[in-house]
Amino acid sequence: MAKSRFYLVGPGAVGKVLARRLVRSGWTCSGVCGRGSAVGRRLAKELGAPYVSTLEGIQFVGGTLILAVGTGQVAALAKELSHLNLPWSRIAVLHNSGTLDASPLLPLAKLGATVGACHPFMTFPRFSGSVRAGLKEDLYNPTFPFFFGIDGNRAGLAAARKVVKACWGLSLVVRGQDRIAYHAAAVMACTLLGANIAMASEILQKVGISEKAAQSAVLAIARETLSNFSEYGIDRSWTGPAIRGDRKTIAAHTKAIAKLNPETAKVYRLLSGWVMKQQSSSSPGRD
Q1: What is residue 286's predicted lDDT score, i.e. its pLDDT?
Q2: In the chain, what are the helix, strand and coil shares in percent, each to the nearest 5?
Q3: CA–CA distance, 259 with 64 (Å, rounded to integer)
Q4: What pLDDT is attached to residue 3?
Q5: How far is Cα 85 from Cα 91, in angstroms, rounded to an integer?
């Protein structure tokens, strides 16, 4: 059986992880197209694939073309690619945007390409501006399996599922405009989770605890909370005054936080109100 082939456009944080997983699953990388960076060249060498710094240099006889670029770049990139003389009827083009469906790839679909969206529902941090070979920034690999939000017609979904399976992931079909809310959920679980942790750490620092100790303490309780959510379920793992319906303590917390940072106090009050609406104030055994 012939090996599955892919071509990567965009050897950044997301592209590197997906490309490495595909190769480890037995896929062949036919090439990497980037902006001439050392990171992209290293990745191509690692994968045993040619590297090009312009779209015109792409040579691809068929397989999956992965566009691991920013959301704002997808439509323009598809238009540029449509000018290339490639065997589009033998190519599936998948972008990695979380908010876009397959419609920005319409110029390629008109040429006969299979098109779809394949967004990894995972965090891909950019640790610094300069990424050196062998360091954490270069070798970053999230815990697996993780989920992918996919979209497309029947052929597009099939192409996306094939990639997801090879990346040891699980598929979630998310259509059209629903992808915007889907991506917002990812932000809430990642960036805004981080915002809550940062705010908690700031509070501890403002009451006299060192930055290192504050971060360690907050991360410890956050890890244990997430572990409990995973093992026992969110509903069984809630703790704190909002679960008990203890409005007096919430008000005291809000007043105290407001003296340190009024904006953080607003967030605390809103989130506490949201939790209270989700839970009965009569739940026993909480503290």
Answers
A1: 47
A2: 55, 15, 35
A3: 55
A4: 83
A5: 12
